[in-house]
């Protein structure tokens, strides 16, 4: 005998699918505008990659000017109050680093959801969409053996992988244009017992371990002295040692450098070193392979570091992220696309809803290298890049917005995703409250509201923020 559980139906004005940086930004901003807002995520918490030990990169541009403010800054301010961040620090490699306590980030996001009246629905997997005449009507989620069909006026796909848009039949691109290769995922993990001063002494004695490959264009000043000067740093290096150990068969990872993030807790660092090559994060079989291969690299990597790198001798495994950090999958086609030429030339159109300024950072999906290019200044991410070209009432936020693969290397970082989300959330709320399509919303009203909340949308705003 077959027993089918009844499908529950609920309705909201704005439905945000995915609770990473782009989803959090969109949900808070939509609720703040007065729209009834729900956010759905498969985890039991919100924040996505902001909760796995990664730093927030490029609040500042290459000239040290703050180009991301608004809601992302509000969240960092609260972390600073709790001792979970040191704020922003200029960096010759990343433009700026903002290291954060990943556990406190989870708490701060729930605080903000409660403050602004967002309704989270957690532990849910998205399993389908209903589309009629090219218009998205509902999204179906499932959890604990029950299905819920959620109807909304406006939907925001902030799944990272563009799962909702894909299910709804939207056109998309995946990976790099040349070969379709996607940047590899990583599994973050945290070590305790790290002796920072001992490691810094080693770097001062071996400055060659901070020399990088020709594909990484890094500004001068990324030295042991720079790293030692503040706990707010991200280390990328040990290229010589890693190459030597790989030749000796003693390196378990497919990358040419070690990256650690110095966490705001003494003796704790988060490692971003594991790389799974030739990977497609939109396939379940690949996600399973990636998780297993990643877990099995952790202990050999810790042993390698303990044996060969001063400062790591007494380290121990403290935590492992609850999911793979996926760098790149689908990009959904929007009404507009932000292209390489515009980003490299710092074009900021008058329908910009967020500025991007992070370096172009493309990790090889099939080898051990990374391509890094600096941008002279910020570029504009336009509202049209967040509105689906094909599916009515569907908006995009986070890393699946409409950009080309090169711009994606810059726009995928979390402060930018959250800043884009803030603009998307305002647009979604205005569309829902006025009963119009997202593309019919007046972008200048969105921009005015963003500025009221402290967002930076132009070089004039950048200069004004400098005072």
Weakly predicted, low-confidence segments: none
The number of strands is 21
In terms of structural class, how would the helical and strand content be classed? Answer: alpha+beta
User: What gross morphology would you assign?
Assistant: globular
Overall description:
The protein has 467 residues and is an alpha+beta fold. The protein has helices at 21-32, 70-81, 102-116, 163-167, 196-205, 224-228, 239-247, 284-308, 340-344, 405-411, 414-434, 443-452, 459-466; strands at 8-17, 37-40, 56-57, 89-91, 95-98, 119-121, 125-132, 135-143, 146-157, 172-174, 189-192, 234-237, 258-262, 269-271, 316-320, 330-332, 352-356, 360-363, 370-373, 379-382, 394-396. Strands 1, 2, 6, 7, 8, 9 and 21 form a seven-stranded mixed sheet that branches. It is globular. The mean pLDDT is 95.
Write out key terms for the chains shown.
467 residues; 22% strand; 5-stranded antiparallel sheet; 21 strands; alpha+beta; 7-stranded mixed sheet; 13 helices
Task: Provide a short characterization of the protein structure.
With 467 residues, the protein is an alpha+beta fold. Helix content is 31%, strand content 22%.
Task: Give the helix/strand layout.
Layout: E1 8-17, H1 21-32, E2 37-40, E3 56-57, H2 70-81, E4 89-91, E5 95-98, H3 102-116, E6 119-121, E7 125-132, E8 135-143, E9 146-157, H4 163-167, E10 172-174, E11 189-192, H5 196-205, H6 224-228, E12 234-237, H7 239-247, E13 258-262, E14 269-271, H8 284-308, E15 316-320, E16 330-332, H9 340-344, E17 352-356, E18 360-363, E19 370-373, E20 379-382, E21 394-396, H10 405-411, H11 414-434, H12 443-452, H13 459-466
Parallel strand pairs: 1-2, 1-9, 2-6, 9-21
Antiparallel strand pairs: 3-5, 4-5, 7-8, 8-9, 10-16, 11-14, 11-15, 12-13, 13-14, 17-20, 18-19
